[in-house]
Amino acid sequence: MYAITGITGKVGGALARSLLADKRQVRAVLRDQAKAPEWQARGCEVALADMDDAASLAAAFKGAAGVFILPPSEFDPQPGFPEARRVIEAVRAALIEARPAKVVCLSTIGADAPHENLLTQRTLMEEGLGDTGLPVTFLRPGWFMENAAWDVAAARDEGVLRSFLQPADKPVPMVATKDVGATAAALLLEEWHGARIVELEGPVRVCPNDLARALGAELGRTVRVEIVPRETWEPLFRSQGARNPLPRIRMLDGFNEGWIAFRDGGRSAIKGTTALETVIAQLVEAAGISL
């Protein structure tokens, strides 16, 4: 039986569906009882747990052949990342108590970045779980292609993709969440010892110009890239409600300046199979746009 946290999200859901299709037993680790019937109907066991509650997590992980950890994302963290530290402490204690056979944890490209930024939350997670004595795989995917969901409306209405990634022709490792979930499922079925890192990106790297072209092709109109000047980021993010925008700004700097990257330039990274065009078509459909 495989215990899956974050099962209601895109990655966790794809992982669970992959395991179920392979006739594996799945325990859905949920925070909300109201979401249990959907997963019970798919044949899953259900365990209720909060990601910062070690006791409930340990009970959910007990007896598992494998556990998937999907840490919650905090996009506007307090200084020092106290939110992430609470989760890490609880997850670590639960794993040590429950002793599942193996663990796959969703990390990120840039978990080994030399400068503090938004992704440092995953650096802390790797540090906290890497010495539990359990077999642990840290899966480091690239930038999610599905982040382009934020660009669909402006592309449709204005023919513009406003990009924080820059310059517009610089390719970035991106990957579809479907491929992340499928890779995590495959990793959970492997056997290994100690802690290891697996990096994952899509079949080809993607620059903002590629995103604009894919959106334009799907929407049937020309879409151009408009670079968002860096000096406007902080007031913009604060106007959107951010209290501590510096970690997000530094993450974007890391991609643009090249210090958020795969260890060997991606030569050892697993390559997903889902094309950017497939993801963009799904995002446009999900937005309910009639062409």
Describe the structure.
The protein is of the alpha/beta class and 291 residues long. It has a domain at 2-142 and 175-201 and 263-272: Rossmann fold. Helix content is 39%, strand content 16%. It has eleven helices and twelve strands. It has helices spanning 10-21, 36-41, 54-61, 82-98, 120-129, 152-158, 177-188, 208-219, 233-239, 246-257, 276-286, and strands at residues 2-5, 26-30, 45-48, 66-69, 103-106, 136-141, 143-144, 160-163, 174-175, 195-201, 224-227, 270-271. An eight-stranded parallel sheet has the order 3-2-1-4-5-6-10-12, with helices on both faces. Helix 4 (82-98) links the parallel strand 4 (66-69) and strand 5 (103-106).
Q: What is the 3D shape?
A: globular
Strand content is: 15-25%
Global Rg? 19 Å
As for the CATH topology of the domain at 2-142 and 175-201 and 263-272, it is Rossmann fold
Uncertain segments of ≥5 residues (pLDDT<50)? none
CATH superfamily of the domain at 2-142 and 175-201 and 263-272: NAD(P)-binding Rossmann-like Domain
User: What's the level 1 CATH class of the domain at 2-142 and 175-201 and 263-272?
Assistant: Alpha Beta
The CATH architecture name of the domain at 2-142 and 175-201 and 263-272 reads 3-Layer(aba) Sandwich
Q: Secondary-structure element order, as H and E?
A: EHEHEHEHEHEEHEEHEHEHHEH
Question: What is the number of strand segments?
Answer: 12
Class by SSE composition: alpha/beta
What would the average pLDDT be, to the nearest integer?
A: 97
Strand order of the main beta sheet, please?
3-2-1-4-5-6-10-12
Q: Please count the helical segments.
A: 11
Distance between the termini: 44 Å
Q: Largest sheet, described in full? A: 8 strands, parallel
Helical amount:
25-40%
